Amino acid sequence: MIRTHQAGQLRAEHAGQTVTLAGWVARRRDHGGVTFIDLRDGSGVVQIVFRSTDEAHALRNEFCVKVTGTVGKRPEGNENPELPTGEIEVTVNELEVLSESAPLPFPIDEHVTVGEEARLRHRYLDLRRDGQAKAIRLRSRASAIAREVLGARDFLEIETPTLTRSTPEGARDFLVPVRLQPGSWYALPQSPQLFKQLLMVAGMERYYQIARCYRDEDFRADRQPEFTQLDIEMSFVTQDDIIELGEAIVKALWGELASFDISAPFPRMTYHEAMDRYGSDKPDLRYDIELRDLTSFFAGTEFRVFQAEYVGAVVMQGGAGQSRKELDGWQDWAKARGARGLAYVVLDAETGEARGPVAKNLSEAHLKGLADAAGAQPGDAVFFAAGSKRSSQELLGAARIEIAKRSNLIDESQWSFLWVVDAPMFEPATDDKGKQIGWTAVHHPFTSPNEEWVDRFESAPDEALAYAYDIVCNGNEIGGGSIRIHRGDVQKRVFSLLGISETEAKDKFGFLLDAFQYGPPPHGGIAFGWDRVCMLLAGTDSIRDVIAFPKSGGGFDPLTGAPTPITADQRKEAGVDARPKAPVTSIQPFSSPGATH
RNA sequence: GCCGACGUAGCUCAGUGGUUAGAGCGCUCGCCUGUCGAGCGAGAUGUCGAGGGUUCGAUUCCCUUCGCCGGCGCCA
After folding, report:
1. Using 50, 70 and 90 to split pLDDT, how confident is the model at A590?
2. What is the residue-wise DSSP string for A222-275?
3. Strand B contact nucleotides, protein CB < 7 Å
């Protein structure tokens, strides 16, 4: 090493020692006769002092330098309690400029906010900033912790292909042309789902992988086209085993990285309970607003809007104090979400009298009983949604979150974890006009019905429940999984209900079905959204903060400029324009000798 | 695909239908021996995202377009 110590680790005990440091000029305070420089390396910052003025004068921000000097206690009164190294400083005898830095496109300074585009274009500079560097370091530690927990439990870390064929998740695939077979394409995996199930058939019993996944869908703050899962699968387990493992991982992560001791087992809630009480399959339990089902309360109402399959309400405490403009704002908010509006009633703070546009349409009895039925007090506002149960609950659930935000009810210092279990197996598949044309799998078609439904899910597909579970943290789904179907007869019945013919099943995942002919063990697993987990641990709002080189909107990488057009030669060689011999209308059959499902 | 916001100096942002478009930070130069987001003085830096239109005159108003951010759709 060209240095003897790390800058951030020098302490009073080093006083008197001669040290050689290497790092970057973080800040220069030039007093003429004496110059102070904050020298930064990966470990932190230390103040170095130049008495000979000329060489220090030439230094600029982010020059990479090597210095040799003597560690000394700072003169009394000049200590800096803000810095871990604040008791000491290094007086320089020898300076070597390892490399110079051009003027910076933006300051490497925690106090200055810089636009994301500029930061990503010069991400290597952005990552010199303390907060950004910490997020990346934290992620490394999170991955190490996961490996420690899983390694101690005899899990095998196994890599799976990234050049593969399309797997049955619902997103668009990224495709890769194949030079050796013009006209044929690989797909990048949306997850290692099928491979990890094959590894169970292979007797690996306990698999995990920190796996890159690819989905060609639109962006969000918490979504990237390539993202990472901590992917896990186990044989001979029940749902409770997976949940216990998930809790162990989360406990280890939050214990070390957030200094938060979570008491396991985490609370569990069924999917239906979550929807009924919170209008979300990933409720944030840091605030205790709940939805009220008013369907029976309003049965027989004259008000057309409330003559619906479901009428529900959510209360905004103190919401009656909102201005007309604020109440109108809720209408815009609801319309932006595709709802027609958000009906509301405000309860007079003095008299408790119900007022607002909706109140006129309600009977005397309904107005009188409303506060009780909705769980509201004088001075509150009550928001309503009416229509189909699912969409109304979702609207109220979104309103619940928005109320918490606007009313400042979210305690950011808290962590709320829970499992949402008993997810439905199926939901109606609809055409463009919203007419039901069949059923589609909520999770994926290999998810096992639970014990109660395994023999009769066909009798009421909309009610059938799965051994599927999501782990939720502060209103974010951070992981999810299921027990898989390992019985051929059950799998056949599920395909049949989903309207997937034997031929089609063979086309899409014949290789898995083949494998399942050879004694597949009962198995199940879970996948954590690793970017999201790290984002929460890092306390940031965007997964971009925990990805070293994230993409911006539209899949553009501001640093490399990818994606780029390709040359005519590249096109030709890649076989992008190869014409298939016959038009391909569906995925090509998977051909395998002996596939006799 | 849809909705909303934004785009002015290297960075963060202010501003205006009318003379030469500003601030802070950064940058360059100078001064300064105890600073720590050092201080003081001087200086340089602009396709006001792009194109078109209205106007005597547009960075400002209108239209289109591009970029970016957030949300909806989409993403099991």
Report:
1. very low
2. TB-SEEEEEEEEEES--HHHHHHHHHHHHHHHHHHHS---PPSSPPEEEHHHHH
3. 1, 3, 10-13, 25-28, 31-39, 67-76
